[in-house]
Amino acid sequence: MSGINREARQIFAEIVSNKKVGAYHHIVFSVGELANSAKPGNFVAISVGGQNSAMVLRRAFAIYRTFDRGASGGLLEIVVAPHGAGSIWLTNQLPGFKVDLVAPLGTAFGIPTEPVRALLVGGGYGSAPLFGLSEVLKSRGCRIDMVLGASTAMKIYAPLDGKRSVNSLTTVTEDGTTGITGKVTDVIPGIIETNQIDIIYSCGPMGMLEAINVIAQERGVVHQCAIEEAMACGIGVCMTCVLPIRGEDGVIRMLRSCIDGPVVDGGSVIWNSKRTIPEGTWGRN
Ligand SMILES: Cc1cc2nc3c(=O)[nH]c(=O)nc-3n(C[C@H](O)[C@H](O)[C@H](O)COP(=O)(O)OP(=O)(O)OC[C@H]3O[C@@H](n4cnc5c(N)ncnc54)[C@H](O)[C@@H]3O)c2cc1C
Ligand code: FES
C-alpha cells in the first residue's frame, strides 16, 4: 500500500542563498541530516506567506540537488519560477530567513542496476531534478543524453556544473532564442535512434510528458516521468492530485500523485482523461 515517504520530516530550514538565474530563482536551504535522505525525483512542500498568511496550502518544488557538508550540515537546493503569490513570496525571502519545509516527499526516479543509455528530457524548471539524476546515473556507468526545452532562452535552466554529468546536451526553444527552434519532441526520435536509448526520464508540463510518452510507447522505450499535477496538501490527505493510473493487474485506479508519484511509469498513466475519472476505473460506479 502506498504512503507518505517514510524519510519525510518537517523542519524550519534557513535560506543560505537565493540567486536569480534567468527566469528562475536558485534557492539553497540548510537542512541538516535531511539532505542524506532525498533522492532524485523527490520534492519539498513549503509553507508560504508567513505566519498570518491566508495561503494555508504548501507549495511543491522538485529537489534540484542535495549536499552533505559533514559536520556543518546538509544543503537542499530548489529552482523556483516566480509564478503566483506563493512562489513570488518565496523568491523574495532573503538569506537568514527560516522556511517551514517538509521533505523529502514522493517517489524517486528508478535507477537501473546495469549501465544503460538514458535520455533525460526537461521542460522549463522541469530540468531541476534531472541534474541530480544524471549524477547518479553517471556514477552507475550510464550514457546520458539530455534535452532541455522551453518557450524562450531565459526559461532554460542548465547550470554549467550540471552539464558536466551529461554526454550530450541539446537545447530547444519555441522562439529560437537558443538552440534548435521547436519543441523537445522534434528532436527526441532522432536521439533515440542514433544513441539506441533504453530509457527516457522526463519532467515538465503534462502536455510535454504526454507527447514524450507517445514517442516512447511507439518505440518500446521505457519512460519514467515526474508529474506536476496540482497539489494542495502534498502528503496524501486531500485527494487534489489524483490521476488515473493502470496498475500491473490491469486495473485503473485514481492514485495520488503526491505519494504514488510524482515519478510514475509513463506507460501506466491514462493521459487523455482530462481531469475526469475514466470508464472502468476502480470505484467509479
Ligand atoms: C511535484 C511538483 C514539483 C514542482 N516543482 C517545481 C519546481 O521545481 N519549480 C517551480 O517553480 N515550480 C514547481 N512546481 C509548481 C509549483 O508547485 C507551483 O508553481 C506553485 O504551487 C505555485 O504557487 P503560487 O502560490 O505561486 O501560485 P498559485 O497559482 O497562486 O497557487 C497555486 C497553489 O494553489 C493551490 N491550488 C490551486 N488550485 C487548487 C485547487 N483546485 N484545489 C486546491 N488547491 C489548489 C495549490 O496549493 C497550488 O500549489 C511543482 C509542482 C509539483 C506538484
Ligand atoms: S496533494 Fe493532497 S493528496 Fe496529494
UniProtKB/TrEMBL annotation:
UniProt record, GO biological process: pyrimidine nucleotide biosynthetic process
Required co-factor(s) are:
[2Fe-2S] cluster
**What UniProt keywords apply to this chain's record, in alphabetical order?**
2Fe-2S, Electron transport, FAD, Flavoprotein, Iron, Iron-sulfur, Metal-binding, Transport
The protein's matches in Gene3D superfamilies, at most eight in alphabetical order, are given as: Dihydroorotate dehydrogenase, electron transfer subunit (2.10.240.10), Nucleotide-binding domain of ferredoxin-NADP reductase (FNR) module (3.40.50.80), Translation factors (2.40.30.10)
Family designation: Belongs to the PyrK family.
The GO molecular function terms of this record are: 2 iron, 2 sulfur cluster binding; flavin adenine dinucleotide binding; metal ion binding
Q: Does the keyword 4Fe-4S apply?
A: no
Residue span(s) of domain Dihydroorotate dehydrogenase electron transfer subunit iron-sulphur cluster binding: 228-269
* Protein name as catalogued: Unannotated protein
